[in-house]
Amino acid sequence: MDTKNKGFDTKLVHAGDFEDEFGSAVTPIYQTSTFSFKNADHGANLFAGKEKGFIYTRIGNPTIDALENKLAQLENGFRGVALASGMAAVSTLYTALLKTGDHMVSTGSVYGPSRAVMESIFADFGVESTYTDTSVIENIEKAIKPNTKLLYLETPANPTIQLTDIVEACKIAHKHNILVCVDNTFSSPVLQKPLDLGADIVLHSLTKFINGHADIVGGALIAKDEDVYAKLRKAMTYMGGNMDPHQAYLVIRGVKTLSLRVERAQENAMKVAEYLEAHPKVEWIKYPGLKSFAQHELAKKQMSGFGSMISFGVKGGLEAGKIVMDNVHLAKLAVSLGGVESLIQHPASMTHAAMTKEARIEADITDELVRYAVGIENVEDIIDDLDQALAKI
Ligand code: LCS
Predict the structure, then answer these.
(1) Which domain holds residue 273?
(2) 287 is catalytic
């Protein structure tokens, strides 16, 4: 079905679908590494791009192709590239768009390994980077150098929930001919569409909301235009960070309920945030839906909902925070987010442990910060669970 002019939820269910010879109602898994050619000329023509078709799964596969088409429609992009993990997407992006002597500007509080791979591996290849608080828009202009080629934003950022104004950031970057990529993992295209706000590329850890069931890792890059897409596709194909057909099948299955899951989780998150904000043992809390959130107005401007990620600190600092993490029963003490189950974790010693302490402090990832990924369980149970854990402090 052509879903180009259909609504978002229809795209979630049907975009990218194709009909096979048996009339399969869902996209089947083409679990094959290679595809046979009709004859030698056919093979040569496929390699030369003179005919369309599949050659080899690292280069392309019908199941993966269906997912890439779906993601492109969800983000209003030209085309997507699916990858083995969110980090494969990050490293493929850097490889595709940066070379020795180039410079990248990025959000200080990005997912720890997105920064660590730049500072500890790409730096060895002579790629320079500046990490800054991009929630203060002037910092972006200040960080740009003559050799800056990429602005890599994460908004809301992991785990500080800080937002960057995508429209304003893109205006600055494009004035200097710099491409902008937004990691949209925390919002998903249900709540935020960076390409519509001016970005050139969207990145996802599909592991999170898009797959939504905590049973695979995966990543994606979606480009707004064909030239950038071609660079990303080439880097993926040569670096070999491709997705597997079975993984693609599971993501296609999971993403169909994205709107339902995201809406329920953020409804819960609002109630959990209000509960935590009023709790006497909670020192501070960051959730974009709260009026007390410093960037509440920006959240309303560029997101259509506030998401389900909360960060907070309890009175008594890290030691008291550990009591909460060790005593919740419904929420699992685990990294990751965006699944149907509630998860709690400690960024400074877990997801962001790869950063230096100085970088963490500068990025506001303080030792007492506890991150809560709100799931779709009954909200009364989530709050009861937190309540009894906070009572143990
Ligand atoms: N971008 C963001 C915003 C992420 O949160 C993550 C993973 C990645 C990229 C990388 O994706 P992956 O390779 O894991 O699919 N974030 C994690 C987290 O907060 N806890 O565990 C993983």
Answers:
(1) 258-390
(2) no
